[in-house]
């Protein structure tokens, strides 16, 4: 057996020497996830098996290389969901939960039936959260990266098997019948933006970078949303905190009631809009 307190102290020291930002928190998160208990319960226990100790020490070595905790444990938590993640798919961020809250509020006030398409679905965080919390909504998750699609399909099977998963690119994705809601969390970071090592070295650049100024890919998502949304349909798109005005401009042609939404610190993080009746020109 190995003593939990000693394991955590040693792990914290190792992570601190590797210049990991939150060594104490990361040590506790990794060990509590390994033992499948809460951090509070972890501090009340005294011992782990030698096998568990070996696995934990290996995880600490991985974290020293700045590998994200979610990739080490294989899970990411998003609203009420436990999603499977790994190399090849973007790790869901807490900020995206605010977009989901806004969309769910609108869905709850809308007439049925409802179809929602999530563009650039990645791990499926947005699509699966909506499908899980409002089961009567038809949800379609669209993703163009085959590596991410593996994780999307895994998560859909575990969380909401009724979600339709489609491999497609937003530039040529089309629907036979226009839909009521579209959500999107496109790559929106400017090409030159400096990222933390654990993001830059591990998470897929294609899911992060939105082109030179960060708006090239969001513009493609906006045009796709305009094509597939019915008149009066609701669109929600996540973006960077400095892109609120650029997103508003990009939405002007085909959308009305453009509204920028702010996070708890007052930063603009996502925008909603209502599809107007102007046809998309080819």
UniProtKB/TrEMBL annotation:
Residues 6-74 form the Release factor glutamine methyltransferase N-terminal domain. The keyword Calcium does not apply. SUPFAM superfamilies: S-adenosyl-L-methionine-dependent methyltransferases. It catalyses: L-glutaminyl-[peptide chain release factor] + S-adenosyl-L-methionine = N(5)-methyl-L-glutaminyl-[peptide chain release factor] + S-adenosyl-L-homocysteine + H(+). Its EC number is 2.1.1.297. Pfam families: MTS (PF05175), PrmC_N (PF17827). Residues 115-197 form the Methyltransferase small domain. GO terms for molecular function: peptide chain release factor N(5)-glutamine methyltransferase activity. GO terms for biological process: methylation. InterPro entries: HemK-like (IPR004556), N5-glutamine_MTase (IPR050320), PrmC_N (IPR040758), RF_methyltr_PrmC (IPR019874), SAM-dependent_MTases_sf (IPR029063), Small_mtfrase_dom (IPR007848). Keywords: Methyltransferase, S-adenosyl-L-methionine, Transferase. The keyword Disulfide bond does not apply. PANTHER family: HEMK METHYLTRANSFERASE (PTHR18895), MTRF1L RELEASE FACTOR GLUTAMINE METHYLTRANSFERASE (PTHR18895:SF74). This is peptide chain release factor N(5)-glutamine methyltransferase. It comes from freshwater metagenome.
């Amino acid at each position: 057996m190995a003593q939990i307190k000693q394991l955590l102290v040693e792990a914290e020291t190792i992570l601190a020497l590797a210049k990991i930002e939150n060594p104490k928190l990361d040590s506790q998160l990794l060990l509590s996830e390994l033992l499948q208990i809460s951090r509070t319960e972890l501090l009340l226990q005294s011992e782990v098996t030698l096998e568990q100790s070996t696995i934990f020490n290996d995880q600490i070595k991985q974290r020293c290389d700045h590998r994200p905790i979610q990739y080490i444990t294989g899970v990411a938590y998003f609203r009420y969901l436990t999603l499977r993640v790994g190399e090849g798919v973007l790790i869901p961020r807490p900020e995206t939960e605010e977009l989901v809250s806004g969309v769910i509020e609108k869905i709850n006030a809308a007439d049925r039936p409802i179809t929602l398409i999530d563009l650039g679905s990645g791990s499926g965080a947005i699509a699966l959260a909506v499908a899980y919390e409002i089961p009567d909504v038809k949800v379609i998750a669209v993703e163009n990266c085959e590596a991410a699609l593996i994780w999307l399909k895994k998560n859909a099977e575990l969380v909401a098997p009724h979600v339709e998963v489609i491999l497609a690119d937003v530039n040529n994705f089309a629907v036979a019948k226009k839909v009521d809601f579209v959500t999107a969390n496109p790559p929106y970071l400017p090409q030159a933006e400096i990222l933390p090592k654990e993001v830059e070295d591990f998470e897929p650049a294609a899911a992060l970078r939105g082109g030179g100024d960060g708006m090239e890919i969001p513009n493609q998502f906006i045009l796709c949303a305009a094509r597939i949304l019915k008149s009066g349909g609701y669109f929600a798109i996540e973006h960077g905190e400095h892109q609120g005005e650029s997103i508003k401009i990009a939405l002007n042609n085909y959308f009305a009631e453009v509204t920028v939404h702010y996070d708890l610190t007052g930063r603009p993080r996502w925008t909603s809009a209502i599809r107007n009746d102007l046809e998309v020109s080819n």
